[in-house]
Automatic annotation (TrEMBL):
Protein name in UniProt: NADPH:quinone reductase
InterPro entries linked: ADH-like_N, ER, GroES-like_sf, NAD(P)-bd_dom_sf, Quin_OxRdtase/zeta-crystal_CS, YIM1/Zinc_Alcohol_DH_Fams
Keywords: Oxidoreductase
Any GO molecular function: oxidoreductase activity
Top-rank lineage group of the source organism: Bacteria
Region listing for Disordered, in residue ranges: 1-35
Amino acid sequence: MTRRKPGRTGGPEGTDPGTRDTAYSGDSRDSGDAADSGVMNAWAWDRYGSPDVLRLRLTTLPRPGPDEVLVRVRAGSVNPYDWRHLRADPALIRIDKGLRRPKPGLVLGADLAGVVERTGPGVKDFRPGDEVFGEVTLGAFAEAVAVPAKTLAVKPPGLSFAQAAALPMAGVTALQGLRDAGRLTAGQRVLITGAAGGIGTFAVQLAKVWGAEVTAVAGPDAAVLLRSLGADEVIDRTREDFTERGPHWDVLLDIAGDRPLSRYRRALAPGGTLVMVGGIAGHGGRLLGPAGQILRGMLAQPFVRGHRITRFMAWPGTEDLQLLARLAAEGKVTPVIDRSYGFRELPEALRYLERRKARGKVVFTM
């Protein structure tokens, strides 16, 4: 799975409209003071490395473009997408974000939930005061961000800001991976690797909503959680190699990315589909990372007989965000939140996520 860019990140008026980079100056201040003075706090990163390189600094409050919405952030979530950009892991990230160091003014963060403060002249579906959630390419690790209206949806009243912020990247990836790439239908058998993480916990629930028989693969401490989410069977990855069961599953959603393609194909029933999300492990080394596994799948597909190997580009459009919101409001899908941090604790949230022990999502609140 790769991420299609959902528009521009926020930045002050007068910056390059293609990147909307933000210039930083001074030290951070309390949220209220920053908002009143037309500036905001944001997590800057001017060199690649661990979360230790992040600095909380002041920047100009962004102005929304014609089709954008200025959202005052109330909560957000962290994803592997974030720490991979922070570390330039894989190195392929440097081509877009800066070869030697990140381009000036970049702010991490994709998932957010908050309150609409201002809208661009082309925006018709949102107004100031609306509670919303959605996704940006970069920029959500800040007190406010300009978000394309087409990647926002109204937050259901019964959902907290933290719960809503957990939905976009992981929820949309799970939804589109199963529904669009996997073409999952009722009665099919689906296996989900990396099932205890952010994407996986959504995937298990969505597969059950759609009437599938779900096998979840995760670590030994995740069985109770995954069964509570609806998994029909949980395989302990430390005790059993599911590929040794032979051809069994109609759809295999590979989030972990920790096995060669040939091993995954062993587990697919005739006519089965392997959906490659990319995963944490990957087999592309420091240069390609998870993209290496996806590239191999693309190259192999023309020569594969009896199975379908597919990738997809997750797109956080309003329609799918609304679908997730409705399912969450109806209690059919529950955002699983492992830990919640304060905005000023974001580096620690990233450190925790990097340990790969999170069960569900890791969020932050203002």
